Amino acid sequence: MYSRGLRALSLSTVAAFCVSLSLVFFYAPIEAEEGFLQKIFYLHVPLAIVALAGFVVGGLMAIAHLRTRDQRWDLCSYVTIHMSLIFGVGVLITGSIWARASWGHWWVWNEPTLVSFLIISLLYATYQPLRFAIEDPERQARYASVFAITAGAFVPLNFIAVRLSASYVHPRVLGSASNLPPSMGLTFLVSLLAMALLFTTLCRYELTAKRTRMLLKARSRILGFQ
Amino acid sequence: MIPLVYALQGAAALPEKSNDGYVAAAYIVFLVLLLIYLAIMSIRLGRTERAVRKLRKDAAEQSDAPGQSRERETV
Amino acid sequence: MILALLRKELLVELRTLESVPGMSLFAVTTFVVFHFALNQNTVEGQEAAGILWVTLLFAAMLGINRLFVADADQGGFDGFLLAPVERGALLLAKAAALLAYLLVLELVAVPAFGLLLLGPSLGQALPGLLAPLALGDLGVAAIGTLVAALAVRTRARDLLGPLLALPLLVPVVIGCARSSAPLLAASGHTDSPPLRWLGTLALYDLVFGLIAYAVFDFLLED
Fold first, then answer.
1. Which terminus of chain C, N or C, has less C-beta within 10 A?
2. Residues of B in contact with A40 (CB under 8 A)
3. Which of C87, C64, C96 lies closest to C222 in space, CA to CA?
4. Taking a contact as any Cβ pair under 8 Å apart, which residues of chain A between 130 and 169 contact chain B?
5. Tens digit of pLDDT for each residue in A55-89?
6. Is A164 within 8 Å of C196 when comparing Cβ atoms?
């Protein structure tokens, strides 16, 4: 059921990445301030945006689960949040590399996006321990949905709060995303699209695998083996 | 003119070579994360396939000897 | 109805004295630890605000951990569910109780802080401090109660409570610490804390209060 269109999705993802990487390395101009290092921007920022969107969407799916009590929404929510957490780790690592290259330290506190991501990742890192600490599957799904909704609402608020608290000693391309030259803007959008497609493809892939395993277990049990 | 001078000074301060390394590192990290994920998924897929084969085998044996399947012990 | 529940909570606490003395003692002890850890006789400004708020936060964790434990272990949830009461009432009553515990905690901890660690005089800063304290307490009460209810019926309840609560409370810490810092500065300001931070705190409290109220029902279903 989730595998419908998976092949097309995967192929589009590959194609999008080919186009995006070509644009990043052969088309987008070298930025005046940071030089070649700025190319990390096309990797780090789409990862961040997609991860954040994933967390919020996971919260929305959790709302759907609580309203309809359909376990499928809970499964979607779980997979989306799990994938966003993995992408979030990618954000932290690439952000750390960028910080090291820009300012010589592996971690900086005055980059609000990175700090927000650290807090959010620490929060969502408790999602799976929470789930696995509850044995009853219905209650597990319900409590996980409550968490997903709370945390999903927390994501934008946290961003605002951290942004307010940071001191803008080092303004960056991240902040000035609105006044990018069109060639950079195009490259960024294509990179964002590629990352979003990757996220969707991997989530679908994961959902298909999980559902297949569940079906398999159910059939085994029906037939009397386990 | 003047911004260009500053840009050149900035470029001279950090050798271009080391920056290339960082960009490559970031993209490599991304790729490695993706590959680790795919590796985990493929291991799981292998396990699922094994389970399917076992199920097929057991189902075939059950249809050969219908009365005996009830006494099978669960693994 | 909420008042009746709240009365019960406070009566139980008064009789068993489970949470509040422990929280207060923890706070005072932590100030002592900070003295030795920082090797300083006095602190002021942002440092003072930070130490005060971190201590209050961790002491609050102790209270949060214990908030629903009696209900979970002794079947209080079932009793509540059988009664013809709106479920949100439990949230409000527990949150109000937690708020009360925090207020008593601060009655002990803030003067202790002024005595033990604070450089500038506390008296001057105190009127201004009331607003961050109040707004911070509301935030901790709302989020703490929600997290306590979430964590109490899991296997690792003592661990999950703080792990869930601390990230969610980071904006509260930011707001409170930043708004208290100028008040505790050495030059002894008497003006009110910056409105920007208070506004953010109030907004955060409101949003999370509403969210907690909206989702709480789903935690009590069985």
1. C
2. 22-23, 26
3. C87
4. none
5. 999 999 999 999 999 999 999 999 999 999 999 99
6. yes
